[in-house]
Write a structure and sequence with these properties.
about 15% strand; 8-stranded parallel barrel; about 240 residues; 11 helices; TIM Barrel; alpha/beta; binds phosphoenolpyruvate
């Protein structure tokens, strides 16, 4: 099955980079690939007005309530978002997000009409102890929870495999190793969505290594942090999608 490439720019808690909305901006979605930017909540509206495909870095599952500082998946959809990251490792680490909470986020995102991207990945310690597969299996449990949803819904969930030791570290994972892990992840997905689910790689992706990852059959796109804030580098990454 032909899966449309998905390239995500995670701007984290940074302002949009200079030139992000130029006419030839690399952040605009294209016919051959979905390109999605994840700005801070404060910059979402500006990016939507610039006709970009926009995702939220985080959304709370409850539609509304006494949750100071939070916004809900429903509100993000109403604001014009199309995608939502669920369980990014920085949220798991800094905000104590659990697998159950992340499952609730995914379900709320789907119900709101957003396309959730479930982020999974092992830490350096877990990697060194050879626990990668068991950690991924556990972190993928939210997907089995949504298995009961109709196939059309479960197939709009994407997965981002981001080994924590490769995020922001400059340490390059080997594309061939990532391909093997993606094959493993795909084998754990519900049968009805195995072929259609896009599995992205994230972790110190740059303009030099992007094409090496994208050359592999089971690497359907990239989630880019630091380099997505540099327009020229992101342009090169965008061009590496064939
Ligand atoms: C990320 O934030 O998801 C990420 C992969 O960051 P970086 O590209 O900087 O490693």
């Amino acid at each position: 099955m032909q899966r449309k490439p998905l390239l995500c720019a995670n701007w984290k808690m940074f302002r949009p980079p200079d030139g992000w909305d130029a006419t030839d901006s690399p952040y605009r979605s294209q016919a051959r690939a979905d390109i999605v930017i994840f700005p801070t909540h404060l910059h979402i509206t500006k990016c939507i007005k610039a006709k970009m495909l926009v995702g939220a870095q985080y959304g709370r599952p409850e539609p509304e309530g006494a949750f100071t500082g939070d916004v809900s998946m429903q509100m993000l959809k109403a604001q014009g978002c199309s995608y939502a990251l669920c369980g990014h490792s920085e949220r798991r680490q800094n905000h104590g997000e659990t697998d159950i909470f992340i499952a609730e986020q995914i379900i709320a995102a789907l119900e709101a009409g957003l396309h959730p991207i479930l982020c999974i990945g092992e830490t350096k310690e877990e990697y060194d102890k050879g626990k990668t597969q068991s950690i991924l299996k556990r972190q993928l449990s939210p997907v089995s929870m949504i298995n009961s949803l109709p196939a059309v819904l479960s197939s709009v969930v994407s997965i981002a495999y981001e080994p924590v030791w490769a995020i922001g570290s400059g340490i390059n994972a080997l594309p061939a190793d990532i391909q093997n892990i993606h094959t493993f992840i795909r084998s754990l997905l519900p049968e009805q969505s195995q072929k259609s689910t896009r599995i992205l790689y994230g972790g110190s992706v740059n303009e030099l290594n992007a094409s090496g990852f994208l050359a592999h059959e089971d690497i359907d796109g990239l989630l880019v942090g630091a380099c997505s804030l540099e327009v020229e580098k992101f342009t090169e990454i965008m061009r590496s999608i064939s």
